[in-house]
Amino acid sequence: MKPLFKFYLQVNTGKEEAFSVAEETVHYLLGAGAEVTVCREAAGKMANEKCGSSDIVPADADCIVVIGGDGSILDASEAALALDIPLIGINLGHLGYLAELSTADIPQLAALVEGKYTISRRLTLSLSLLTKEGTIPVPRLALNEVVVSDEDPFRMIDLLLTDSGNNKIRYRGDGLILATPSGSTAYSFSAGGPVIHPDIDAICVTPRNTHSLFNRAVILPSTSRVEVRCSTKQTGRLAVCIDGRRMTTDTPCVGVAVTRGEKDLQMITLGQHGMINTLRQKMREAELKY
Asked: For a Cys staple, 4 with which of 112, 139, 218, 273, CB 3.0–4.6 Å?
């Protein structure tokens, strides 16, 4: 792979140990001959004057290094997709499944400057909100999932799913999760959905607490256009979230259309871990953190 020289550090400053981890990360990257820019909030509390600071990822950055948990990586993915550059995470969170490195692995970052890494391309989802007045495209791509439910979290909702293969499935329950393979280990996993290897191009539809005989997750090809709409008898308003972020409209949302995103997220890997091995190990470690 091509050597990476210009790094941007996105730091979750709400984590107690974030600044010391950022200092160590900067130390190893500068020692490897890299240029480093740190998010301004973190840079203001660091003593190293050899790195720059910025509120946004520089346009000429080669890579984003995220210091935080899975939520921080999801946040940073928006900039990585926009600039079409890879990212790598250093886990400070609870599970940190998306993070490639632990704090003990920070010296391995020098391998990026030498071009000794591989890229895992992660499928994303593109979302449009369907209202009575028309279709509203959402600019943000989903790395993990799109969740559809009733605006009232305590109400059951009646949904009809259709896809470009002319399949029709009715779900009555708490809602639906439309997940990527990356997201199959997140909310969809908690709802009983299958684990899907990130190299597989697919969209996973996982129902939440269905009150019907058909309550199974469905795997659809990534080429599908999936629509989820309220039943004609449903008087409520849909709540829609992308990677945990609520989407809002001025007019009631009556459905969503989901397709494969136009870009894949590039995530850096530094070795063959085995997806199931990694999930098992990180979940065990997470349980010990309680």
From this structure: 112
Number of Cβ atoms within 10 Å of the Cβ of 271: 11
Identify residue 92 by its one-letter amino acid code.
Answer: L
Amino acid identity, position 18: A
C-alpha 67/C-alpha 154 separation (Å) is 35
pLDDT given at position 123:
98
- Distance, in Å, from the CA atom of 242 to the CA atom of 55, rounded to the nearest integer, reads 23
Q: Can you tell me the distance from the alpha carbon of 277 to that of 281, in angstroms, rounded to the nearest whole number?
A: 6
**Integer angstrom CA distances of residue 197 from 58, 99, 120:** 32, 16, 11
Please indicate whether residue 70 is annotated as part of the active site.
Answer: yes
User: What own/partner pairs with CB < 8 Å and gap ≥ 24 does 247-254 have?
Assistant: 247/127, 247/129, 247/138, 249/129, 249/131, 249/136, 251/131, 251/132, 251/133, 252/131, 252/132, 253/129, 253/130, 253/131, 254/130, 254/131, 254/132, 254/229, 254/230
Mean pLDDT of the chain: 91
Handedness of CA 201, 115, 113, 275 (dihedral sign): positive
The residue annotated as part of the active site, out of 62, 70, 150, 264, is: 70
Torsion of CA 266, 269, 274, 276, to 10 degrees: -50
Q: What's this model's pTM, rounded to 2 decimal places?
A: 0.91
> How far apart (Å, rounded) are the C-alpha atoms in residues 97 and 106?
17
Q: What is the pLDDT of residues 244-286, one digit of tens each?
A: 999 987 888 899 999 999 999 999 999 767 677 777 777 777 6
